[in-house]
Amino acid sequence: MTDAILHVAGLTRRFGSVLANDDVSLHVRPGDVVGLLGHNGAGKTTLVSQLVGLLRPHAGTIQIGETDAVADPAAARRHVALQPQAQAPIDGLTPRQAIELASRIRGLTARDSRAAATRLADELDLGPWLDRRALPEGGGLSGGIRRLTSFAMAVAAPMPLLVLDEPTNDIDAARRRLLWDAVRRRGDEGSGVLVVTHNVAEAERIVDDLVVLHHGRVVAAGSPARLRGTQDNDLRLDLQLQPDGQDPTAQPQTVPVTVRRRVRAGRRVLLTVPTAQAATAVTWATTLRDQEHIDGFALGPVTLEDTYLALTTQPRDTGSEHIQEASHV
């Protein structure tokens, strides 16, 4: 794929007997934001570590622009900006100093670095903390402000490829929205963006394509609409179970609607049902709630989260491939 800024093909990485990445292929084009989804341990950070040369794959290729990143990782890194999953080591610095330092390392002038710090502080609502010093052991700045500073350091100087590993960790809801908007903006400005996340609902709003990893393998890839597929005509019935965990849907024959898919995630049971049976589903769920078999319910459109849970869950021994138990949400 010659127009891709990042092209990964057949990437395989083992740790002893554990296959962390198993024949992974994906690509990111300039201007695209690609989400890499997967539960903890799916192999996302292992993949990122290979992209930036911190780990060497046992098989497969990584092409960043015109550079073979496996053969020459140092050259490839000149085209990549990374926000790692771990917090940036900024103790002793203010966010302004950290952003300016990252900008200078990437080749911006002192004047442009100062302008970048000011612009990013406005974009991410960092102003009140911009000149507050980070202290050892997490002092001085909260985890969320440190995380935003790390993102700002990664994007301060425009780069062809931007790799963000769980950029929203520790960030409050209001600033998460600002950050997601900032991620989308980098794509719109021409960078290829690979964003690692487990936040399916928020990522869906800004990505062009998604890659889902499960046990080290790509189990789905495509646009959010494509991954949802024909389920756009179905509805999701979300049942909130009682604390005792008794599940009134455990026996499929007792459910009075057609269940195309059932996923249990903790005290939630997600049922995919036909739109034509919405009234029956609501009547049944209302009865369950009134009889205190469930805490509550909600009926709405099928979302990408439903697809993601179905792709990353293990079928239970129930006689139906659509009855699944979530291993992680």
Automatic annotation (TrEMBL):
Residues in ABC transporter domain copies: 6-240
Membrane topology, from the record: Peripheral membrane protein
GO biological process, one term: response to antibiotic
Top-level taxonomic group: Bacteria
Location within or outside the cell: Cell membrane
Keywords for the protein's UniProt record, in alphabetical order: Antibiotic resistance, ATP-binding, Nucleotide-binding, Transport
Entry's Gene Ontology molecular function annotations: ATP binding; ATP hydrolysis activity
Name the UniProt record assigns to this protein: ABC transporter ATP-binding protein
Protein's organism: Ornithinimicrobium ciconiae
